[in-house]
Design a protein that fits this description.
heterodimer; A: 113 residues; mainly beta; 55% strand; B: seven-stranded mixed sheet; four-stranded antiparallel sheet; 53% strand; globular
Chain lengths: 113, 113
Amino acid sequence: AQSVTQLGSHVSVSEGALVLLRCNYSSSVPPYLFWYVQYPNQGLQLLLKYTSAATLVKGINGFEAEFKKSETSFHLTKPSAHMSDAAEYFCAVSPSGNTPLVFGKGTRLSVIA
Amino acid sequence: KAGVTQTPRYLIKTRGQQVTLSCSPISGHRSVSWYQQTPGQGLQFLFEYFSETQRNKGNFPGRFSGRQFSNSRSEMNVSTLELGDSALYLCASRSGAHAYEQYFGPGTRLTVT
């Protein structure tokens, strides 16, 4: 069965600092991987997706993620945090891209001025 | 293009009652999925409908059911509500059965007392 582990339920960074949110997956087949963001009282917004093309994926709002098969990881990064990045971030995996998403538990990002 | 809409946004019900939640997908999207979000269990897949047929079903009891209409609008129903059914119910749509990107609505916050 597919599963996703997000290391750290809460990450706090200073404004302007590097953002690194960790995601490791388990999958018996090459997976499709996604990062979503959720702002308070809102639904999920897709940040980026990996669909077996380029291993470095660029998304919206300056975020990017790198697929590393050897490490079964898909960590999310942003060079410089903004106050507006404070939200909950979810990593998700899908066996074939169009099957139900399996989500990690989420990481809450706080940005300190 | 309008996003995914869910009604109502907030709902309070009493244990033992039943509830129906509604989801209107993005215009032209034919696939609708439902997810339950709770602090303890995180985001869990409920079911997916495509062209009025259930394609996938998650591991939830039979009290949870859904359907999709010919205009792609979907409803989910929960009968005999339990306190543990209190959650944010998210609906997501995608353009077709093989599309990767899911677009989420703002959710319906259900509180069972």
